[in-house]
Design a protein that fits this description.
With 250 residues, this protein is an alpha+beta fold. The protein has a single domain, classed as CNF1/YfiH-like putative cysteine hydrolases (4-Layer Sandwich). Helix content is 22%, strand content 24%. The protein is built from six helices and 13 strands. The radius of gyration is 17 Å and the shape is globular. 45% of the residues are buried.
């Protein structure tokens, strides 16, 4: 099983975290092989086995894992006693100060974000594609850190895993116009009469606007679409699985 870890988050010995790849599971084509999503019509027993393999690799209890029914919203959910592997909340971000409670965000071109405040011992994950970026979901996550867990923004560290880059993310003029109406045209690139969107550029600017320190922001330079042999990519493959970002407080 091939996973990637954050240089920033590796500084904290009380964290378990990873960004997964396609490699190391049992799912068959077109979900081969480490698909962690149930909603993509993969064989559910294979998906459960993939989760079991990942839990064993990262040393956590699969049943304690909290993932999400992701809906491209700006909704953040504070993890409670009702949340577990079999009962995922409907939202696009999770936050908790509970130990031994892995949080997971699933993606296939959208950006997977992992957050950590080492002072208050709080973790979060967020799912941010175009919709999440346009709705500024990261601002809501940062506000939950500060309002619900009394975090100081200078202590929040963020790692963003592989996602589709502006090299591949072609969008229509209606998306350009929407971006322009939101003052996000700085993240649009025009090439040969086509528009390309840089979601990572939006997320970084929004994090900085929330007073996150630039040295505490890490963004992968890997495009999931260009690298669809390593990562699941909806844009490249259509019917495909999901890789994930995962974080747990020990």
């Amino acid at each position: 099983m091939k996973i990637y870890q954050s240089k920033l988050l590796n500084n904290f010995t009380n964290l378990t975290h990873a960004f997964t790849t396609k490699d190391g599971g049992v799912s068959q084509q077109p979900y081969n092989s480490l698909n962690v999503a149930f909603h993509v019509e993969d064989n559910s027993s294979d998906v459960k086995q993939n989760h079991q393999y990942l839990a064993k690799k990262l040393h956590y209890d699969k049943n304690a894992l909290v993932h999400m029914k992701q809906i491209h919203s700006d909704i953040i959910h504070i993890v409670d006693e009702n949340d577990n592997f079999l009962n995922p909340p409907t939202c696009d971000a999770l936050i908790t100060d509970k130990t031994d409670t892995p949080l997971m965000v699933m993606v296939a071109d959208c950006a997977p974000l992992l957050f950590y405040d080492d002072t208050q011992k709080v973790i979060a994950v967020a799912h941010a594609g175009r919709a999440g970026a346009f709705k500024n979901i990261v601002r809501n996550v940062v506000q939950s850190f500060t309002n619900d867990f009394q975090s100081d923004v200078k202590n929040i560290v963020i790692s963003i895993g592989a996602s589709i880059g502006s090299c591949c993310y072609e969008v229509g003029s209606e998306i350009y116009n929407e971006a322009k109406s939101l003052n996000l045209e700085y993240a649009m690139e025009k090439k040969d009469d086509s528009y390309y969107l840089n979601v990572g550029k939006i997320l970084k600017k929004q994090l900085l606007a929330s007073n996150i320190q630039e040295k505490n922001i890490e963004i992968s330079n890997k495009c999931s679409c260009c690298n669809n042999s390593t990562y699941f990519s909806y844009r490249a493959d259509g019917i495909t699985g999901r890789f994930c970002g995962l974080i747990m407080l020990q």
